[in-house]
């Protein structure tokens, strides 16, 4: 499995969990958040929770006292499953959550595979969970290189999320050059062009040196400036070839080639930056849509067809919508011990036992996963590629609404 897919999945999983946690409320200050960074000893945390539990005995309200006690006890039993906090740390969110009509239910949510490291230890008991560390992990870190240039000046930097950083402003001395006595017009012209060449070379070299170490995080280079110089500079290969590959068209007209020019550039290019993000997803869904129209399509969709195609090793690229909210649940029947797996559309959907008809059916947490994780793992068995498709493009929305969010480009036609 590619590392970035693994990270993409972790982000998506965390995002879904965060959405659920954000909605949860306690009756009083009785929801417990425990965040454990990698360098913290589990035994220390367990000890601290024990103390918190002892202190909770002093809480006046009988119900709150019981609820906080339950939450801490559940947190400790989660910790008992771990020897250490792992590479990224662990977060536990536990407590009696309001489920309507003055009713509460003890909910325990554990995140032990976050997309980024939990950096600081937290123990908090409040009416909501503390989610800032999770929210920070999900901030969009996609960045873009920015470059503005004309014959007088240039500036470059980077845009990441909503932040714009200007690394350097450079001035040429071309504009200040005056023809001197005895210089022919031609010679003067040549000197000016040499100076311009040196200036473009200096500005692009500085910019490339700044971007190259982090090029993998940069999704595109956006170019602007007041006149034609920007086109000249790109066309004449001043940029390093690896950087040039990332340069996006069109270029943008902005008033100045300094820090304020970079800001104007980001304003003008905002729409394009959004689109760049989506280009790859859009192309995949387009390929799928084109293929699925064919008489013998090398494409299929729908959970049943996809499972069968995965089983046959026919899947080249699996397309999964981030809008999917299904789970693959491992069920077991208490009375007859029958075990089976089924896809669940919402958590309240609980089947009867297909063998004995009993309603006393339980979820087996060890066999239960998000359907995206489950299908990704199946894809891995036959080295199929997996792409998560956001709902942010029209094509992405179509994948979810018209094709149930599960589709595939195939290695060969199944019809
Ligand atoms: Zn049964």
Architecture overview:
The chain is an alpha+beta fold and 415 residues long. It folds into three domains: 136 residues, eRF1 domain 1 (Translation, Eukaryotic Peptide Chain Release Factor Subunit 1, Chain A), CATH 3.30.960.10; 136 residues, 2-Layer Sandwich (Nucleotidyltransferase, domain 5), CATH 3.30.420.60; 112 residues, 60s Ribosomal Protein L30, Chain: A, CATH 3.30.1330.30. The protein is 39% helix and 25% strand. It contains eleven helices and 17 strands. Strands 7-6-5-8-9 form a five-stranded mixed beta sheet, sandwiched between helices. A four-stranded antiparallel beta sheet has the order 3-2-1-4, sandwiched between helices. Strand 5 and strand 6 form a beta hairpin. Helix 2 packs antiparallel against helix 3 and helix 8 runs parallel beside helix 11. The protein is flat. The chain starts with a helix and ends in a 5-residue tail after the last strand. The model has no long low-confidence stretch (mean pLDDT 91). Bound molecules: zinc ion. Zinc ion binds next to loops.
């Amino acid at each position: 499995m590619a590392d970035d897919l693994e990270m993409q999945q972790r982000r998506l999983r965390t995002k879904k969990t965060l959405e659920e946690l954000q909605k949860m409320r306690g009756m009083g200050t009785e929801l417990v958040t425990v965040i454990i960074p990698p360098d913290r000893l589990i035994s220390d945390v367990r000890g601290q929770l024990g103390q918190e539990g002892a202190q909770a005995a002093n809480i006046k309200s009988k119900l709150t006292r019981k609820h906080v006690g339950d939450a801490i006890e559940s947190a400790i039993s989660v910790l008992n499953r771990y020897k250490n906090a792992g590479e990224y740390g662990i977060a536990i969110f536990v407590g009696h959550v309001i489920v309507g009509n003055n009713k509460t239910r003890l909910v325990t949510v554990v995140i032990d595979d976050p997309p980024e490291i939990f950096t600081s230890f937290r123990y908090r008991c409040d009416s909501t969970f503390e989610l800032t560390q999770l929210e920070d992990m999900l901030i969009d870190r996609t960045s873009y290189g920015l470059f503005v240039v004309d014959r007088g000046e240039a500036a470059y930097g980077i845009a990441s999320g909503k932040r714009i950083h200007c690394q350097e402003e450079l001035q040429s001395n071309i504009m200040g050059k005056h023809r001197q006595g005895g210089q022919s017009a031609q010679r003067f012209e040549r000197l000016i062009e040499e100076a311009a060449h040196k200036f473009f070379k200096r500005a692009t070299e500085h910019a490339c040196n700044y971007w190259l170490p982090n090029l993998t995080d940069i999704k595109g280079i956006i170019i602007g400036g007041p006149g034609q110089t920007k086109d000249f500079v790109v066309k004449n290969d001043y940029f390093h070839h690896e950087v040039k590959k990332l340069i996006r068209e069109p270029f943008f007209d902005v008033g100045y080639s300094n820090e304020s020019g970079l800001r104007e550039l980001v304003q003008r290019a905002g729409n394009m930056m959004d689109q760049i993000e989506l280009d790859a997803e859009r192309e995949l869904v387009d390929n799928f849509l084109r293929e699925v129209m064919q008489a013998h399509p090398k494409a299929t969709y729908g959970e049943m067809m996809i499972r069968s195609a995965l089983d046959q090793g026919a899947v080249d690229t699996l397309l999964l919508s981030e809008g999917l909210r299904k789970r693959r649940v491992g069920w077991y029947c208490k009375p007859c011990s029958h075990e089976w797996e089924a896809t669940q559309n919402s958590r309240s959907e609980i089947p009867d036992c297909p063998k004995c008809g009993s309603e006393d059916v339980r979820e087996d947490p060890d066999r239960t996963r998000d359907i995206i994780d489950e299908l990704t793992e199946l894809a891995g068995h036959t080295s199929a590629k997996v792409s998560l498709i956001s709902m942010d493009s029209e094509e992405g929305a179509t994948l979810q609404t018209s094709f149930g969010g599960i589709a595939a480009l195939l290695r060969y036609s199944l019809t």
